[in-house]
Amino acid sequence: MILAHLLAVSIGSVLYVAAGIGLVIFFHELGHFAVAKWCNVSVERFSIGFGPVIWRVKWGETEYVLSIVPFGGYVKMLGQDDIDPSQLTSDEIAEDPRSYSAKNVPQRMAIISAGVIMNLITGLLFFACAYGLGVDTEQPIVGLVQVGLPAWEAGMEPGDRIRRINGDPFRPSKTSSSASRWPPARGCCSRNPRT
Hints:
2 domains; elongated; two-stranded antiparallel sheet; 39% helix; alpha+beta
């Protein structure tokens, strides 16, 4: 029973990580795709993932593909040969002005850099969302009171909510977990943790 629970939690965690990585890859490739379109480059395929294809649709000149393993992706542009760019002749480039190879150096640099720039923008947006939503913090509720320690001497009981220390409002922080190492302080708490 415990093993089944741990396995379910592990599988759930792996799926969350895979979805997160897939989302980061999607935004990265979206950066390449958007700037390529902006520079009037013909995009043949926008693909997220590797392995067997689980979804595919052709819309306009671009084929959109989702594969089963979300740990990668690519944008295939007309005239782009990452393995050996010298294979493209000047005649092939001249034939199609929408070819990646037909674009000038600043345009090609913009297309290639767009993925990393999109990663930065996505990171900033996620940070802003996380900062705006906030993070739940552990409430300052007394859990255990040991005889002879400062909390016991102050009359605290398990379940008390700490409201003030030395007259100042108490705000939970990373350092509040080490409160037992602080010098003795006069605290104030309420007996009902729901208030």
